[in-house]
Amino acid sequence: MKTRIIIAGFLAAALSGLTVQACILQIRLACDNDRAASDVQVCVSGVGCATTDGLGIALIPIPSIGTYTICVNPATLPPGATLSPLCQKVKVVDDAPPVVVFTLGGSFCSTPPPPGPCWLTGGGTVGKTQGVANYSFGGVVYPGCSPNAADGGNWNVVDHFSGLHFQGQQITVDSCSGVSTKSPKVNVNIIDFHGTGVLGVNGGDAKTPVSFVGRAIDNLESGGGNDQLYIVVTDSSSQIVMQIGNSASDPATISTGNLQIHTSSCN
Fold it and tell me: Does residue 149 sit within a domain?
């Protein structure tokens, strides 16, 4: 009950700053063995284009929620890489869109990246009540195993029933553990991380500083119904303002989407 009172008070304060706000689509091109393709042009129809970085990730801001068509320019694929289909449609329903993954094939994928520590991409939903997802999530943690890239990544969670939007903006990975998985072939399946960020109303400008702790478990392909997520977000007085899963040892199973642990670009 105390948590509900805190959330209700926060919503009342934040609603005055409610505005339409763009979010960012994250698109990744990589093989099943996690080898990434850089300098590939990716375009969102009617919005614009970007090229993938060394991790195979392209970032394209979109103006609003809706359905978008994402296409890869085949002329920019690296030698030996194949891709079919070249386009995907993605439905963006809030400020936590999933990472859109294009899976490459061909001889380009014959050389896997070296094993090492881990990083995370993910997106999807948790739970459903009367046909509406309880939570949407999406983002990247430690892209390329780097704590310096985008301050350790970004992680978004939208609570569809409170309207709150959490943004993890400064992230630190605590450990990579667990067992090996095959898609991509990596030697761990659990990533633990923590950090700081902000909490606001979905689409609003008013934000309050928060801290968080997270765990993602990449159990099986595909992720929906298999992978697991734990996130707990606290305010400056250590009150819980958002939580997915009961604890790190008892996380929630995601309903749709995927949690993907990577070891490419790791030393």
Answer: yes
Q: What residues make up the domain containing 161? A: 2-262
Total domains in the chain come to: 1
Whether 202 is in a domain gets the answer yes
For position 141, which CATH number holds?
A: 2.60.40.10
Report the amino acid identity of residue 32: D
Residue 65, in any domain of the structure: yes
- Write the pLDDT tens digit of every residue in 145-166: 887 777 889 999 999 999 999 9
At residue 85, what is the residue type?
A: P
Can you tell me the distance from the alpha carbon of 56 to that of 37, in angstroms, rounded to the nearest whole number?
Answer: 5
Q: Tell me whether residue 267 is in a domain.
A: no
What tokens appear for 264 in the block? 């490419």
Amino acid 188: pLDDT = 86
pLDDT at position 9: 36
pLDDT tens-digit readout, 171-205: 999 889 888 887 677 788 999 999 999 999 876 77
- pTM, entire model: 0.70
Shortest CA distance to 199 belongs to which of 63, 7, 23, 26? 7
E strands, the chain, in order:
23-31, 41-44, 48-51, 57-62, 66-72, 87-92, 100-104, 119-129, 132-141, 153-159, 164-177, 181-182, 185-186, 190-201, 207-217, 228-234, 240-244, 252-253, 256-262
Sign for the CA dihedral angle at 103, 76, 66, 63 comes to positive
| pLDDT of 22 above 70 | no
